[in-house]
Every structure is written in C-alpha cells, then in structure tokens.
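Format notes (please read before filing issues)

Several people have asked whether sequences and structure tokens are stored in separate files. They are not. Every record keeps both together, in the order shown below: the sequence lines, then the token lines. Line labels are part of the format and must not be stripped during preprocessing.
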Amino acid sequence: WQKFLGFNRDAYWPVHFSSRINQPKNVLLGVDTAPGYEPGCYIQAIGPVKIGSYTQVAANVGIISANHYLGDLRKHSSAPGVEIGAYCWLGMGCVILPGVQLGDFTIVGANAVVTQSFPDGHCVIVGSPARKVKDLSISECNRFENELPYHGYISAKRFAAYRKKRLRV
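Then the structure lines:
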C-alpha cells in the first residue's frame, strides 16, 4: 500500500501509513527488520541508521540520528548516527538518540530514552535516561535465521547490489 498510496514511498521495507521515515536512503536494515511497520514510529535518518537482523521495533518508537546545531537550528549534525545490533527489541514508545550504539540482544523498555551506548548488548535497559537493569545470559540468547532471508522487500541475494546502487550507508 505504501507504494500505491505514496507514503514512505522510498523505504525498501514495509512501513505503516502512520509512521514516518525521513531519509530512508540512510537506513541500513538487516534481515526481517522493519522499523515503522508498527504504527506511529518516527525514524529520522539524516545521519546513518543501521539496524541488525531480526530486531523488533514496537509502535511509537523514535530513532533520531542527528541533532540540531545549537547556534543555528536550521542545520543538523549527523555524525555518527545510530547503530542497533541484531536480535534487539525496542519497546513501545522508546526513543533512541544520536550517537547511540546498542549491541546484539539489547532489550529497550517501553518509553525509555536512550542517551548513551550499550555496545556489549545482552542486556535490558529501561528509564529516562536509560540504564541497565539486567544482563542476559549469552548462552540463552537464540540466534535463529529465516529460511528465506529478506531485507524488507529485497531478497538477501540481491541486497548487496541494491545497497550499492540506492543506499548511502
């Protein structure tokens, strides 16, 4: 529907009509990951946004990759963007701010505001600002794979060529 109706037309993955993807060419998604599939999400990808395979993004999640310059609010500072690992779960209403890196198997609680990185992953983070409340056992974290892997609408076999031709990340 998004291609037919024209909302989020440039996104290469399914996006709910009430979600907004800003600069989808700066978004690199792993297999079976679709931020904005749930309603009310906002992905601001002025800087690069990288999200690993099998990461689940709940409704009303915000991912912000760039801040305004304090001296001139018309301009943005885009480096270094946002990087979210594989097998993560972003709970409803959470916000991921610029420069944040989350390692694999990071669970972000509902309404958390993530202002700092948790690059080692395997943890649960909650609150505003987010803080670690639990470590996950690496041996209990299951790295499954789909039989037919797709990056949004594009098969994994064709994704490298698509990325080279159409994405900036």
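For reference, the curators noted about this record: The CA atoms of residues 16 and 37 lie 5 Å apart. The helical segments are 2-5, 156-166.
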